[in-house]
Structure formats: structure tokens, C-alpha cells
């Protein structure tokens, strides 16, 4: 009989290599759902998805079906989408507004903060039913950082800002590009799926080594439109950084190398002409350049371990459905204070790369399929050693060249901690 | 309805199934819209996020990317087969392109894609805005409403 895999043995930190079992073993996946998705902060929503009392969305966090709701008190609650009576889900729609959630199986009713308020034919329970103990199971910790809502299934976790570590600085930079206005998740969430492990997407979203290869067709296309040296801002000579930010977080920071690439893309968007003319009347050339560039990307790709990536102008939530099945939820953002023309150009920039029919994301998905094929081979180790010799550490962050696998090593360092620390310490 | 319109719609589907993308691209007018919304009730594609919202330049990019040999999501390429239902005139569409056109028609379709040994089906309705030009009929706009657009989606790099 095959020996069960030990998580500690799957991450070889000295050799900067990962055993394929960390991506393919069902037992490891089950351990991840417990030790990661139910033991630390996970991203759950952007506040603008739930602007009004009673607004909710349903989703799964790890394997847990939940309702994320702005309850009557105004607080955001993360509730288990599971009736305490016989276990049916109490909320069916992906999004909506409700003061109560009612289980339609036998009619039990809960307030939108999860409290059980109605049990049908209550005389059947004598005095034995304590409603105060039978509310929808509630995730004990929910905190928002400037509109980004995170929750923890385990109560005993450090404050969210502590968890965010070096990722906080980049969240601030992202949010501050809106010049004090609020981001709005006002165009829904679009879900893609692929047959492969959830960490393929996690590693890919902070991988500065892959764009010029995986996305070659995109960069060649942009070169054809006169985008000078397209893709150079992520090549081996680019003056840009990949960084590990602590607690598994990481970033590709290409602000120092991206030049006018991002604004050029926006200027090429379908229907851009009249929008650009109107914007040119409103902004100085420098302001316009900055806004157009930000409409495509603020110049870094942020990963907040384990399930959030902030890329381009969207939020990306990674949902590990099974060891070899992953959902990726894309939520494009607009800015409440910006002119409609600018917000439309943001949406065009998003469509260019980040849809199932886009010019970028499907090529990443193809690489995930190829990883699935390749990792079927009886060859144990995946190498993440790029840039080990030239990285530098300072104040809890580790930095090296943008093509280096620093963010991936940051992910696995945290992964190993969470999967190997004693359960008593994790809970 | 003229047999010519029916033939145009069926021929267009056949060009896609035959992967004859250059000839397919030549069907389009110089100014055009190729649009696949996420929802049927979208009033203005410019004001929301779309699965596909191309003008002529981006549509050309889309086709040329597929032909470039570098579009990994189509390596290996998909094969497709489209069953196009009866072609019917549309008198009062909820959206229309701001481009000159002579006629609007729609047809239901069932599109089967096979890639890497897996079969995937898309079901929906395509609406065509057509214009007669001196050298033949041109596609001014095509709107493709997919049942599957609500998601989840995967690799949708075939042309619709």
C-alpha cells in the first residue's frame, strides 16, 4: 500500500522544489481545505457587492457553501448556507436582497444575520428546542480592509491587517488610484473553470516568467499595433520586481518598466475614439495618460494568499472545487467618481484579456490543462528555484527580478507552515 | 424572406466549421460589431462587461491570433459543427447597431465543439444585421446570445 504523503516532505525549501503530490493528491487537498481555507483569513467579497442592507451573495469558501450578507445591523456576516434542521441550503440565488432566509423544505426561517426566528408547527418540539443555539452557522471573524472583506472560520487568528503583512501596501496603492473615490463591483462576477489544481492559478497570477511565452500571441498582436517593444516590460532585462510579501502573499511590480504599454492598449479599444476625445477635454495630457494607463492596469499584479488576486482592473477569487477542479471568479471594477467614458474603457481593457473568449486568459487555462497532463508522469519534483541566488530580504519582504519565482516560494513557505503546524496551534 | 439571406447565414456557419477564417472575415463590413453578451437584457454593450465586444479591428486581431500558430488555447485546434435553425426576420430587436443595415434576421443554433477528445456544446440564438453592397451581402453586426454565457465557462476561443 502506498504511504500517505506528508505535507512537510512535499515542500523542499532548500532545493526550492515542490513535489507534484502537493498539486495532485486528494488527501493533501482535504488537508488544505481544513488547514488553509478554514484556518486563516480568506477573501470573501468587495463591500460594493453588498451596498444595501439585506444584499447577499452565495458562494463557496473552500468546500463550504456560504451566504455573505449585509444584515439589518449593517454588518457583513458570513453564514453557512445550510439549514440547522435537516441540512438543505436556505438561499438559492447567486445574488439578491433578503430580510429573511427560509428553508423551503420544512419552512424554518432565519433573519439575515442568521438567527433562527421561525420553526413551523413548533408544538412538535415540546420545550426541547433552543432556537438561540440553532442559528445558521456563522463564521466568527469578518473584517474589511478598505472595502476588501475577509473572513475566518477559525476565531483565533490575528487581526486582518496583521495577516495582510506586505500586501497591505499594495492594496493601498490599488485603492488610492481611484483618487479618494470608491471602487464599485457593479458589473457582476464571471466564473471560469478549469480541470486542474487551484494552485495552478495561484502561482500563475504572480508569475512574471510566463507572459512572453504563454501570451506570445498577445504581445505579437500588440507589437503589430505599434506597441513599442511589446512584452519587454516582463522580459529578462526589465527593470521590475517580483516580491514575496509575507504570509504567502506576493506581487509582480512592473510599475518601473511598463512605460505606455497599458495606455496604448486602452487607446485601441473598440469604440475608444469618441470617448478619448471627450476625456481629452476634461484632463490634461499627463492626467489622461495616468487615467488611461490605470484603466488597463495599475502596474502590479497582487496575490493575497490563499484566494485573492488583484490584476488589471479586476478582483480574482480562486475557488478550489476539488483537487483537480477549480473555479476562478472575475469581478471587474469601475470607479464611482470617474467619468463614464473612463469606466467604459476599463471594461474594454478587461474584455481584451480576461474573458473565456479573451486574448490572454484562455492561454493560461491551456497551460493548466498541460500541467494536468504532465503531472501525470512519474516524475516527482517541480522547480521553483529561479532567482534564489539574487533575491534580497528586507522587513519581511523578499525581492528579486520580475521573472524570478519569489512569489511562488512565498506561497509555498506559508502553505508548508499551515499544513504542518499542530492542529491545536492552528485552531 | 429571400433564399439569399438564408444561404448567407448557412454559408457563414459553414465557413466557421471549415475553419476558413479569412473568407469568414471577408464577410464583414468595414465597420462592424461582433458581440456576445453575458446576459440577454443588456441594453448597451458599451456600458457593461461583455464576453466579446469587437469592432472590425479587434475582430481582425481575433482571427489573426487564431491563424498565428501562437494561440495555445487552440493548439490543438477545436473542430466544430453548427446546426442552424430556421432563419427568421427580426422586426423589433432590443438592441441594434448604430451602423447602416438593410435587414435583421435571427436563428437558433446548436454548436458542438470537440477538442482534446472532449465534447462541449453551446446553445443559443444569433442575430444578424446585413447590408447589401455592390459585391455582395456584408455582415454589419452579429449578436450571439449563449445559454452558457451565465457561466461557468472554460476555453471559448472558437469563433461564434
The CATH class of the largest domain in chain A is identified as: Alpha Beta
- Helix fraction of chain B, binned, reads 10-25%
Query: Mind telling me which CATH architecture of the largest domain in chain A this is?
Result: Alpha-Beta Complex
The oligomeric status of these chains comes to heterodimer
Radius of gyration of chain A: 23 Å
Instruction: Give me the secondary-structure category of chain A.
Output: alpha+beta
What is the residue-mean pLDDT of chain B, rounded to a whole number? 96
Helix content of chain A: 25-40%
Domains of chain B (count):
1
Structural classification of chain B: alpha+beta
Order of helices and strands of chain B: HHEEHEEEEE
Shape of chain A: globular
Query: What is the CATH topology assignment of the largest domain in chain A?
Result: Naphthalene 1,2-dioxygenase Alpha Subunit, Chain A, domain 1
Report the largest inter-chain contact.
Answer: A-B, 35 and 33 residues
Biggest sheet features of chain B = 7 strands, mixed
* Structure annotation, total helices of chain A: 15
Summarize model confidence as the mean pLDDT of chain A. 94
